[in-house]
# Entry
Amino acid sequence: MGREKERHRGRQRAAYARTPRSASVRAVKILIVATIALGLLVDQRWASHGQAVASAATWMVCVVLWSRGDARQRAALAACLVFATAGEVFLSLGWGLYRYRLGNIPLFVPPGHVLLFYLGTQLALRIPERAEWWVAALALPVVALFAWDGRDTLGPLLYALFLACLWLSPARRLYATMFVLSLAMELYGTWLGNWAWSARVPWLGLTAANPPLAAGTFYCVLDLLVLSAMRAIESRPAPGFLAFSRPQARD
# Structure
């Protein structure tokens, strides 16, 4: 188990080291940020057709990512779409942890998870070693404060799950990046009113802020699921969504 983890870390470091800093990668990152930011705004402000326009734009950018990847990367992308869709159905429609403004799951949401993850893999390349523990340390007092005053008693549970993800997987820089990146998106989306978290958590009797500080934990779990799927279909372990940060082999 220890040797496998060390090999996994080695592949991760190699992936970080070999990633090209091309203008096309920067353009894709800008495109993703613009798609998410403007898509949520259009969805909220254009009541009649905004959700359809945002969904079409998000799927188009997702197709761009698909066209840039090889077969292995496309498998990871497809796994992310499947798990993200299932997670949305369970968390929103089943559990009722949060609710979108029309009571549905907008069609831009599952591919939006893929876009955000791709962006996270690129930004994680710039995170120094051990910085993930600084993110966890800075989040702890805020999570504790919100739980102590009763504003977000779900927070400690999500935070503990976040720490478990950091402990179980070598993709820690990605998780720390997604923790911050998804919080920014959650703050933006809830501020606009695209979705809202339930003040009382169904089944558990806990409270939740809108959004919970540790909502990014769900993205960490998503990556663990993608990693498990890639391991199941490959003969050797795969670095989950970090596969997107590897250079492409060209004939």
Summary: Confidence is low (pLDDT under 50) at residues 10-20, 237-251.
